Amino acid sequence: MAAGSLGGTVERLQAGFYSMPTLFQTCGYTSKPPLDYETLRDVIDLSLWAGQLLLQSGAESQQVEETVHRLGTGLGCDWLDILVSPNALVITAISDGEFRTKVRRVVNIGVNLQVIVEVSTLVQRVLAGELNRQELRTELVRISRFQSGYSRWTVALMVGAACAAFSSLFGGDAIIFGITFLAATVAMLVRQELQKRYFNPFITVVVTAFAASSIAGIASIFHLGNQPQLTLISAVLLLVPGVPLINSVQDLMKGYPMTGIARGVTGAVIAACIALGLLLAMSLLRVNGL
Amino acid sequence: MTAFDLLKMVLGDVLWSGVAALGFAVLFNVPKRLLLGCFLCGAVGHTLRTLCLNSGASVEVGTLIGAGAVGFLSVYLSSRFGVPASIFTVTGAIPLVPGVFAYQTVIGLLHATSATGSQTVDFLSAAGLNGVRTALILCSLAFGIAAPTLLLGRSNPAA
């Protein structure tokens, strides 16, 4: 609007810019029909949404970039440039020289692999031409609202079993197995309660580690089982930041140093929080963890 | 070690590492139809590592071999089920994560702060060593599960 007061100079410059052949046209990249203003806005919004769902569910950076790129070009853009940052996503979508850039803040809300499966299925269906933009939007709304496929008790018991399985792998006997199972299951229930009340994730880790090691310390106090300290190690394994740490190294190797470093630091802080919770419990119970 | 002992050890390893992967798969909300694949990935990776350790390899090399197997198995399973390979690599990697070394690192550091005299140095050096091992195992784990992408999925970065 303000440009009009300059006697139309800006409009003429813009017109000249947009009439120039773009890099992709000169390279013979594109044969797609140009998207109009509204469509391009819709496409970038949908791509950003899909990318946000992936990033907040624990996908690695390359996966986010590739999926968003395939979705955007599948919806009719010539090209998409995606910047994956640890807690934001920046996307520029290009169609026939017209481009749009949009930033979205992303908060990591924990690993949810079902979201990653569903988003990747959506992209496959878009590329196969089975979904239009309206249907894609409906599906994205459904995925965003979707909670968990398992009841909280199923999750708690399975996590307890997983930690108990670790104690067996480390050479613990049946008593160690039982105590670890109890400690990890209760700790997982505590964690779910704290998460439900939106506590800070690091505080959640400290309190959960405290709960797990307080119960696991029973074995050391009463000298139960063949190696009592194994319960302490195994019961806090449910908190070990495996996914952030693995994603960190993978991002570093695949050329995303910024997200790689950020995820590594987050993993280290979580490990420190586990240690804090353990230390509190061990000093209260006067148990030695090594 | 007799063949029977070996069999017993392998079966125990398969069972417990598979259950560990399965538990974390449920925690990560993996769809039910993929749970068996997650069990398999966890079991294969950890059992291979145990066999490597048994035949005298270091834990880092064993992790690399186990994680590489998880990586290639995940590619097969992902094409079979039509889902991203990362579903299987993430859950399959969980039993291989150096949780115990990380635990010993932080507990060692905590002990070092409360120890006196030459004991402090002992705890600190042990914690440092465990920290380095944690990092090395993590690197070989990540390289192993990313091996199919890194070795087979190459593209010209300048194009």
What does this entry look like structurally?
The complex is a heterodimer of chains A (290) and B (159). Chain A has helices at residues 9-19, 23-26, 37-56, 61-74, 113-127, 133-145, 152-169, 174-196, 201-221, 229-235, 242-253, 257-285; strands spanning 79-85, 88-95, 98-105. Chain A is mainly alpha-helical and 290 residues long. Chain A folds into two domains: 32-145, no CATH class; 152-285, no CATH class. Chain A has a three-stranded antiparallel beta sheet with strand order 1-2-3, covered by helices on one side. In chain A, strand 1 (79-85) and strand 2 form a beta hairpin. The longest helix of chain A is centred in the C-terminal third of the chain and has 29 residues, at 257-285. The termini of chain A are far apart. The model of chain A is unreliable at 1-22 and 24-28 (pLDDT under 50). Chain B has one domain (3-152). Chain B is built from six helices and no strands. Chain B has helices spanning 3-27, 35-54, 59-81, 86-93, 99-114, 118-152. In chain B, 51% of the residues are buried.
